[in-house]
Design brief:
UDP-galactose 4-epimerase, domain 1, 2 domains, two-stranded parallel sheet, binds uridine-5'-diphosphate, UDP-glucose 4-epimerase, decarboxylase
Length: 337
């Protein structure tokens, strides 16, 4: 198979690149290196079936350099992370909407299959017990930049669905719920690398709000094979699939667990939301996936426990002998977000 991956130098994209090279694919990666990094691809840079193109998904010529001639395309490139989205809403909107449209057009012209990476953010503030894919979306005002990511990804999904319906594009959508693992950086606010890094450095773990908000973390090595199986399944086209963890944990309990497990001397610091984020920021209280659709179609059954996730993330930094990226740790700095 000839596979193109947009965002292949990012956290999930680089794991997918390695997985597909190991399965025998030719892999061409397009990445503008804005949040991704070549370090993530260090192990595959010299692989004979690997090709890297530096460029933006907003540039059709650059997209064609990886997509033309491909059998399938994994579209993972996006402006992600709360910090970036809140600080640069225009960039996030343009990249996530126009960039996806460019990738859809290029994939259609190439006659390839497309897997579109979307997000649990599309459900917004819907805090139901477990969210099936047809759940209603509860979004805040479009004038609050926090919601631009969810809005843009919702448009992306609608575009993909329309390309499937009107042009017959074979496109499947996955909604990723807090995927975590080695190579995810805390620089853009993600909680697991942030808290693990703080615990390893002996700094206070910054838990926003009262810490009762919860998430279901999924491990990248559980998610990546499911992306491939969904892209390969003809019954997936025109559909969306949740991919998330099965264990719901509050952020406070997560912080306690990290300290305990890493035998860290750190304590926990509760940071009020108005200090952690720009004023008016709204957090999601809870986000629990119903994975049954992906389980039934491709046998998605995430096995990695939260304890294994924490130790793998912690160990990955020790293995490469460098300290985890110092994330935003001080409330004063956080307020600047
Ligand atoms: N969070 C936290 N401390 C941090 C970073 C994040 O308490 O240092 C919280 C954040 O407010 C949210 C949860 O952890 O409630 C998950 O945040 P993340 O940005 O990882 O994912 P998302 O909000 O997109 O689910």
């Amino acid at each position: 198979m000839k596979t193109a991956i947009t965002g292949g130098a990012g956290f999930i994209g680089s794991h997918l690149t390695e997985y597909l090279l190991a399965s025998g694919d030719e892999v061409a990666v397009l990445d503008d290196l804005s949040t991704g990094s070549l370090e993530n691809l260090a192990d595959v840079r010299r692989h004979p079936r690997f090709r890297f193109v530096e460029g933006s998904i907003l540039d059709r010529a650059a997209v064609d350099r990886v997509v033309a001639g491909a059998d399938r395309v994994f579209h993972l490139a996006a402006a992600v992370g709360v910090k970036l989205i809140v600080e640069e809403p225009l960039r996030s909107l343009r990249t996530n909407i126009h960039g996806t449209e460019t990738v859809l057009d290029a994939t259609l012209d190439a006659g390839a299959i497309l897997l579109l990476a979307s997000t649990s953010e599309v459900y917004g503030k819907n805090a139901s017990d477990s969210l099936p894919e047809d759940s209603d979306r509860i979004l805040g005002s479009p004038l609050k930049s926090r919601w631009t990511y969810a809005a843009a990804k919702g448009i992306d999904e609608a575009f993909a669905h329309a390309y499937w319906k009107e042009f017959g594009l074979r496109v499947a959508i996955v909604r990723l719920f807090n995927t975590v693992g080695p190579r995810q950086t805390g620089r853009y606010g993600m909680v697991v690398p942030n808290l693990v890094g703080q615990a390893q450095r002996g700094e206070p773990l910054t838990v926003f709000g009262d810490g009762t908000q919860s998430r279901c973390f999924s491990y990248v090595a559980d998610v990546v094979p499911a992306l491939v199986r969904i892209a390969e399944h003809p019954a997936a086209y025109g559909q969306a699939f949740n991919l998330g963890g099965t264990y719901e944990v509050s952020i406070l309990a997560l912080a306690e667990r990290i300290i305990d497990q890493l035998e860290s001397g750190s304590d926990i610091r509760l940071v009020p939301y108005d200090k952690a984020y720009a004023p008016g920021y709204e957090d999601m209280r809870r986000r629990v996936p119903d994975n049954s659709k992906a389980r039934e179609l491709v046998g998605f059954n995430p096995k990695t426990t939260i304890a294994e996730i924490i130790s793998n993330v912690a160990m990955s930094w020790q293995t490469v002998m460098r300290a985890p990226t110092a994330a935003v740790t001080e409330p004063a700095a956080l307020a600047a977000r």
